[in-house]
Amino acid sequence: MKWRPKLDELPLANLRDRVYALMSELPKDKVTTYGDLAAMSGSPRAARIVGGIAHTGPENLPWHRLVNAQGGLAVGFWGGQDAQRQLLEQDGIECDEQWRVKDFGERRWRPEWNESAIRLL
DNA sequence: CGAGTGACCGCAA
DNA sequence: ATTGCGGCCACTC
Fold first, then answer.
1. Can you tell me the distance from the alpha carbon of A101 to that of A2, in angstroms, rounded to the nearest whole number?
2. Given A11, A20, A63, A106, which is the most exposed site by the fewest CB atoms within 10 A?
3. 8 Å CB contact between A19 and A13
4. Strand B nearby residues, CB < 7 A
5. Cα-based distances in Å from A50 to A45, A77, A93
6. Cα separation, A22 vs A7, whole angstroms
7. Residue A58: partners with Cβ closer than 8 Å, 6 or more residues away
8. Measured in angstroms, what separates residue A56's CA from nucleotide C13's C1'?
9. Per-residue burial over A70-90, b = 16 or more CB atoms within 10 Å of its CB, e = otherwise
10. How far is CA A74 from CA A7, A46, A89, A102, in A?
11. Coil, strand or helix: which one is A27?
12. Any idea which nucleotide's C1' is nearest the CA of A16?
């Protein structure tokens, strides 16, 4: 079994609403990954969906603090990585020359680090 | 209602 | 270590 089945015991609401709620709870000095958001939302393999949802979602959410599993900035949107890097710097988050968030391990936001996020689930 | 899409992740070579 | 490719899941058209 390569891909584990989804946890259908979880009270799954609209993944979209969960992602938005989680993003609104995301501290501005932290970043998170698509995969983590998907896992927090109860669908560990829905990382791509999170991206699509964020793309079509409201613009007041901090999309720039979403990065891939390697801590790297996504490519090909908002006018490019430069724009995202500047947005991150506005929040006090720096990136290296490989377009990866510095101290990604420290800045990475996890559900068990934030009780309000767990309450959302 | 059905098919296509996506800002990705993980494993295999 | 790097590259390539298959696959998941909800949303949009």
1. 30
2. A11
3. no
4. A 2, 33-35, 46-49, 51-52, 54-55, 63, 66, 68-70, 74-77
5. 10, 15, 22
6. 19
7. A20
8. 14
9. ebbbbeeeeeebeebbebbee
10. 28, 16, 16, 15
11. coil
12. C10
pLDDT tens, residue order, chain A (121 aa): 223 333 333 344 578 888 888 888 888 899 999 988 888 887 888 888 888 888 787 878 888 899 999 888 887 666 678 888 888 999 999 998 888 999 998 898 875 544 454 454 5
> CA-CA distance, A73 to A82, in Å (whole number)?
9
SS3 string, A56-112, reads HCCCCCCHHHEECCCCECCCCCCCCHHHHHHHHHHCCCCECCCCEECCHHHHECCHH
